[in-house]
């Protein structure tokens, strides 16, 4: 996981509010004094203030009452967790959607740092603790989640009257896009990082093309595939180590049925996982096929996670796999180079990772609708990908009828939410200028702000997201 270097953010943050008139500052200070009471006054909102770890911010944990079914709001409720980093009610608000759990720590996304704004991190429905009881899985849809965000935005706009920007990475970038599609007027701009667009779930040839050409080092690609084959050749030895590790942790394999299925799924993940979260410079760390089984197992565990497909490893991601198998789609590389050694290739799909008592039916039109909207109607959107990230093999594209929207690819980068800082200078300046314009920020100090410093950090749970 990359981290941006430390730098001048503290100075830039201070500069960002320079020039504010004394009377306006006094009014803001007075408003901030009662922000806790104003938040508590929102119907359906409970609020707890926590100790802030970010200079210039107050930290609030919110629970907001949401209908399980927005089409039938009288048929049950759940509490959705939202973490608010409050700077000032006259600054822009950044809506950060993780698409998964909300990390229980403070962090600033790139857009938040650039606009010197407030940030809310919204937990996706069905992720713990934002779980409807009982869980009505048919309500785990992109429209229901987008409507969660719509209702929340409407409530918080009673306090935050400035411009709103949405952002997120991976499934969070997808979530921000879906929200913009269904409620395009909720936010003034969207920055979606590394957001896959599996518009045709039956055609995954883009992933095969990606793995044939990713990076600039053919030897690295060969070494990774050779090690995958070696793992399968040492199946008995590797599975013995997986079994021992699971027993020590008290973990089980009931959902996927066996350690053998779990092992093969993690092997099929291996090449993908390397490029998703590691840079080409790390190819030197790939063990040779002649390495000891202990060394190979340790590296396999580092990259793929030997216990990823235990019941306990899958539990927190069941809502994602459910959505992948019902609306989002999933990648299916061909794995031709592994065929003589695979036994369970057909299990490499979301149905394998969701308990069998949860029904799943795939809707092939859900992503077609999103893709068509982005191509024809996207407005004030930036899609940013890492060149070496497998998820970018099927990206969003904007068509001639989209307005003020662009797609960017950061050379040599991977699955990250810190890609504006890594873009070529001209593109970095362009997307930064667009973001500031959408957010209504025109201060030269803001345009010069460096995307570095201890307060600008990656979503701390992004690296925990599943591969498939």
Automatic annotation (TrEMBL):
Q: Tell me the organism.
A: Actinoallomurus oryzae
Q: Name one GO biological process term.
A: proteolysis
One GO molecular-function entry: peptidase activity
Top-rank taxon of the source lineage equals Bacteria
Question: What InterPro entries does the record point to?
Answer: AB_hydrolase_fold, Peptidase_S37
Q: What Pfam families does the annotation carry?
A: Peptidase_S37 (PF05576)
Query: What keywords would UniProt list here?
Result: Hydrolase, Protease, Signal
Q: What is the lineage of its organism?
A: Bacteria, Bacillati, Actinomycetota, Actinomycetes, Streptosporangiales
**Protein's UniProt name:** S28 family serine protease
Q: Does the keyword Protease apply?
A: yes
Task: Specify the signal sequence span.
Answer: 1-26
């Amino acid at each position: 996981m990359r981290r941006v270097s430390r730098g001048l953010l503290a100075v830039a943050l201070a500069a960002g509010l320079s020039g504010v008139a004394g009377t306006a500052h006094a009014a803001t200070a007075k408003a901030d004094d009662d922000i806790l009471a104003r938040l508590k006054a929102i119907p359906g909102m409970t609020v707890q203030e926590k100790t802030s770890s970010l200079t210039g911010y107050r930290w609030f944990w919110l629970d907001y009452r949401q209908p399980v079914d927005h089409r039938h709001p009288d048929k049950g409720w759940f509490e959705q967790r939202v973490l608010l980093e409050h700077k000032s009610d006259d600054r822009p608000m950044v809506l950060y959607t993780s698409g998964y759990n909300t990390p229980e720590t403070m962090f600033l996304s790139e857009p938040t740092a650039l606009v010197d704004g407030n940030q809310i991190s919204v937990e996706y429905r069905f992720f713990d603790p934002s779980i409807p009881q009982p869980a009505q899985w048919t309500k785990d849809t992109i429209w229901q989640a987008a409507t969660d965000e719509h209702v929340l935005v409407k409530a918080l706009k009673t306090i935050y009257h400035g411009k709103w920007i949405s952002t997120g990475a991976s499934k969070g970038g997808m979530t921000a896009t879906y929200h913009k599609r269904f409620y395009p007027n909720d936010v003034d701009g969207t920055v979606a990082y590394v957001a896959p667009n599996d518009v045709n779930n039956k055609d995954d040839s883009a992933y095969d093309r990606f793995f044939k050409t990713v990076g600039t080092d053919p030897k690295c690609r060969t070494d990774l595939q050779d090690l995958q084959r070696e793992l399968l050749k040492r199946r008995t030895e590797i599975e013995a180590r997986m079994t021992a590790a699971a027993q020590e942790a008290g973990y089980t394999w009931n959902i996927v049925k066996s350690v053998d299925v779990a092992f093969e799924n993690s092997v099929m993940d291996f090449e993908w996982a390397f490029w998703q979260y590691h840079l080409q410079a790390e190819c030197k760390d790939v063990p040779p096929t002649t390495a000891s089984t202990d060394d190979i197992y340790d590296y396999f565990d580092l990259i793929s996670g030997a216990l990823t497909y235990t019941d306990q490893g899958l539990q927190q991601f069941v809502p994602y796999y459910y959505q992948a198998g019902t609306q989002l789609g999933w990648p299916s590389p061909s794995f031709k180079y592994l065929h003589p050694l695979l036994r369970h290739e057909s299990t490499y799909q979301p149905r394998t990772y969701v308990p069998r008592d949860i029904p799943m039916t795939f809707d092939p039109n859900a992503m077609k609708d999103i893709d068509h909207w982005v191509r024809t109607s996207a407005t004030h959107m930036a899609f940013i990908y890492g060149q070496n990230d497998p998820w970018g093999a099927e990206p969003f594209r904007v068509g001639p009828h989209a307005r003020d929207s662009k797609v960017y690819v950061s050379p040599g980068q991977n699955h990250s939410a810190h890609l504006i800082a890594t873009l070529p200078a001209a593109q970095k300046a362009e997307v930064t200028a667009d973001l500031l314009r959408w957010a209504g920020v025109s201060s030269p100090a803001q345009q010069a702000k460096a995307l570095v410093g201890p307060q600008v950090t990656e979503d701390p749970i992004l690296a925990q997201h599943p591969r498939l």
